[in-house]
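Researcher: Please predict.
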Amino acid sequence: MTQVSVAVSTRDRPQALARCLASLAEGSFSPSDVVIVDQSDDDRSAQVSERCRKSGMSLLYIRQHERGLAVSQNAGIGAAASDVVAVTDDDCVVDGRWLEVVAGAFEGDPELGLLTGRVLPLATDDPSLAPVSIRPSALPVDFVAPADPWKIGSGNNFAVRRRWFDAVGGSDVRLGPGTAGRGALDMDLFYRLVRAGAPARYEPAALVFHEQRPRAERRSRRPDYGFGMGACCMFWRRQGDPDALRILGRWLRFRARLLLHALGRGRIGGVYEEMLMLLGTLRGVIYGYAHAR
């Protein structure tokens, strides 16, 4: 079976990291190695990583002082031992068969470059919490360019073949949390991989559970997601991509339909979130146009 490394970026969430690593250790398929890239302000996540290493997990810990999820992902994937690297977030719990499904997909298709999967909310008894990032579809899909990147998958559940990751230059350090580009790091990476010809597949059996957050935090992330999407469309346009503006137009229509749907249902919270997303997108377009070089 194809060997799979796992890369996890973390910052100041030691309890969530411990839970994530525990789910990896309990899975049906063991990773060849786990790379933890830590941008925390203290040593608690380092201590969690060391305990897991001493318990028998093949774990490489990297302390990183430069901020940004893109920088962290590049470091984690670059340091991984295997050609196939699966990526999840520190606030996720992976399904028991997650790595088994990932390994099987890449074993069955030697040309596969990108695999994404289903994301469901992690169960909680706290009614004040809400899903932040979900991808519930149970239908497998193969993608070819020019695919709408928001349909391909989510950044907290994907696996990539390293030669394809290297071929597109890795994650764009101008985008994502911890950068002026704010969001859409995953959308940009997935789009560039598919644009470069990497065979990509959404496989619902590759499942992770994402921690729910307070509703105010969910809303606070909406502008950043939109901002990043607007920015990366402008980056693609400057790269000479003839589909960049069409992708941007489809994104705006997609969000507008969601806004109208929420309005028709009287969901004021949903209307507000979509307005935040659209406004963030427009601001991201301005930013991306000015910083696309």
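Model: The first strand starts at residue 4 and ends at 10.
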